[in-house]
Amino acid sequence: MADERDDLNVGENARPKHGVLPFVIVALLMGLEGVGVFLLARVISPNPVTVAAAESGGADGLTDTGGAGGFAEIELAECRPSNRTSGKFVTFHVRVSALVLAEDLERAERIVRANRARLEDGVNTVIRRADLNHLNEPDLQTLKRHLKHSFDRIFGDDQLVKEVLIPQFLQSGSGL
Fold first, then answer.
1. For residues 80-114, b (16+ Cβ closer than 10 Å) or e, as one string?
2. Stretch 89-112: mean pLDDT, rounded?
3. Which architecture does CATH list for 63-173?
4. CB 134 within 8 A of CB 142
5. With the C-alpha atoms ordered 123, 126, 128, 131, is the resulting torsion angle positive or negative?
6. CA dihedral of 170, 150, 97, 85, whole degrees rounded to 10
7. Torsion angle, CA of 155/158/164/170, rounded to 10 degrees?
8. Fewest CB atoms within 10 A around its CB: which of 44, 72, 88, 134?
């Protein structure tokens, strides 16, 4: 009888042994859930814009179709204007280009050659007058808008320049 009690006590005090099966089931369910979320996100999300499309202007609605209906870039000015509007003296090294229709490229090149000093003066004036906020914008949209207005006035045609590009905008001096 004592042996029976010992067997019962051992049975009552012993911890029940859980197998590995519940952990395997939970891991499989989590894996299936992850795959399901991935597939759902793939189906729902739009395709990303490629770098080539973004650089050619495809994201802005300006696409380079090549040939007569495409766009061409033309360098307008490279200068070193300064700005003191923030109370600090800052010098910039700026290169400004424009996007024009390919069919207008020759006309634009003639105008640029004939008005080189006026174009550089326009860039200098816009940057000298710019507020600190405009100079620190990541995409420089306000400066581009002001430059486009200045170029439209110089060219005498507000349809020639489709977009102003600022491929180089370096700051030096006291800092902004």
1. ebebeebeeebebebbbbbbbbeebeeebeebbee
2. 88
3. 2-Layer Sandwich (3.30)
4. yes
5. negative
6. 0
7. 50
8. 44
Q: For residue 126, which of 169, 82, 161 has the smallest C-alpha distance?
A: 82
Encoding tokens for residue 174?
């006291």
pLDDT tens digits along 122-143: 888 888 888 878 888 888 888 8
- Percentage helix, strand, coil, to 5, in the chain? 55, 20, 25
If you count them, how many residues does the chain have?
176
If we measure between CA atoms, which residue out of 66, 155, 57, 171 comes closest to residue 111? Answer: 155
3-state secondary structure of 116: helix
d(CA 72, CA 33): 50
pLDDT tens-digit map of 10-55 = 555 556 566 888 889 999 999 999 998 888 887 787 665 554 445 5
Q: What is the pLDDT averaged over residues 163-171?
A: 87
Mean pLDDT (the chain, rounded): 78
